[in-house]
Amino acid sequence: MENEYREREDVNPMDAVRGKASRTTYSTEIPNEKSGKKSAKKVAAANSSAKTKTTAAKVKPKRQNILIQVLNGEILTRDFVLNNLTFIFFILLLLMLMVAKGYYGKQLQKDITDLQADVDARTAEYIENKARLEESTSRYRLVQALEKRGLKETVNPVKVIRLKRKDNE
């Protein structure tokens, strides 16, 4: 029922998103409740006034696409950009810091990986050297090395001789 009271031309729903003015015109006529139909003269008058309004709106210079303005550099001359230039520089600084933080994090991760590989290699080397030492200092190897010098392993266990000391001496 609302559509009876207004006369529409082709309206793109994305115009509101892009910031373009709506081209919808509303008639100022009050509908006749008894007949329910508009007279042909009123409809023709409304159509002609709506067409003149839309042709006047079409005469306005069309705003360029935002992408074209960015590529041309025209966006930099707008008052909004000029008034908020310090804020824009601040945002750019934050973006650069964020990128630098990402690279720094990658570098730290690489350093951690390299150091972990180095620690693993040194741990393996330590375990290998410890095994060699235990093998070379085993009882059997020591007995073989001392036989060349003429020393033999004792068969009897070692006895400890303890002397009691007197307090006077």
Number of domains: 2
**Average pLDDT level:** 77
Q: Count of DSSP E strands?
A: 2
Total count of helical runs of at least 4 residues: 7
What is the spatial order of strands in the main beta sheet?
A: 1-2
Low-confidence stretches: none
* Percentage beta strand: under 5%
* Oligomeric state of this protein: single chain
Q: What class, by secondary structure content?
A: mainly alpha
Secondary-structure element pattern, one letter each: HEHEHHHHH
Biased composition (Basic and acidic residues): 1-11
Protein name: Cell division protein FtsL
Keywords: Membrane, Transmembrane, Transmembrane helix
Pfam families: FtsL_2
Could you please describe the fold and organization of this structure?
The chain has 169 residues and is an all-alpha fold. It folds into two domains: 2-61, no CATH class; 89-147. It has seven helices and two strands, in the order αβαβααααα. The protein has helices spanning 2-5, 15-18, 40-59, 66-72, 79-83, 85-136, 139-147, and strands spanning 6-7, 25-26. It has a two-stranded antiparallel sheet with strand order 1-2. The longest helix is centred in the middle third of the chain and has 52 residues, at 85-136. The mean pLDDT is 77.
